[in-house]
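Expect chain and fold; see below:
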Amino acid sequence: MPSGSEHRHGLQGLCVARPVRPARRDKRAALRMAGLITADQFTIERPMASGSFGNVFSGVAVSDGTELVIKSPNDHPLAEDLLQVEMKMYARITGQNKPRFWPQYLGFSENERPGGKQNILLFRREIDSFTLAAFFDNHRPQELYERLGVKMSPGASSTALRFELTRSLLSQLLAATDHLHKHNIIHRDIKPENLLVTRDSEFPVKLIDFGSACERSGLSRIGGKIVCFDPIFAAPEQALDSWNRARERFDIFSIALVGMYVMFPGLSSSQRMAAFREEFAHCRYDLLLWLSQSKAMMGRIGYAGMSESYEAESRPEAIELINLLARMLEKKPEDRPTAKEAANILSRCTA
């Protein structure tokens, strides 16, 4: 959470006391905004979070009391450029009355600050939502099962529930990513901190933070000159020249890593995932070899636990899921399936 000084600095001139909310009017009018939003159309309430390139605040639309999330760049040299990319990407994918795969983007506002204007982004707030990382950091997997529709059958092992949770999450992520790829957009920063788990019964998982996204092709290639991602969840082709060969299959590798993070309790933290990446590279990006070696590395960080390893090899549905993840984690981008191909394979996995 940003401190009070960071709060004032991040949105200079726009931070006001929590207002008395006005009576609700035509809700559709506010929710159709997708361009410039003037400062008198919303108020800022309190800081919510901070990251490497910006700060996030809660707010309220003056017209109808709609709860907002407001994103502001910080003083990092790349912060404003990343926000500009994010603004353009959301403008490209906005248009649905009920966005399925990401929070509803309402538009941007221009904030006057020393040195010139600064854009800030406004979204409709997803009530009672948290990132996937927050659920694991706060030890709340039971609530994740509920939100992602995993039935907790009597007698089901915790490992079996994890496998089913992984299947459900991958299904959501692959659908969202396939939609992006069809619209010429590559996210490039898919990780637990950028996945919002909501109470939307149909599409509970929302992708957030499009600042690292880029166009797959085109003359201008929005975002093509900026490469900024989390090395723990990024594909091996992290250098720009290698990434240009991978394109959308960069996202596929990241999705599979999120699957590993969810499936194996021993990997459900950034520190443990970093250790996994190191051990996985030593295994030449061969997931089946890594799983086999886990039995000899019991208790060692970066490997699966003994019970998880055996159950992954003994349950038919787990074997199918592991084989899919192995394909998605191939070192060569051309050996990975597309999002649509991976989704089709996942749908055929034994329930």
User: Anything to note?
Assistant: Confidence is low (pLDDT under 50) at residues 1-32.
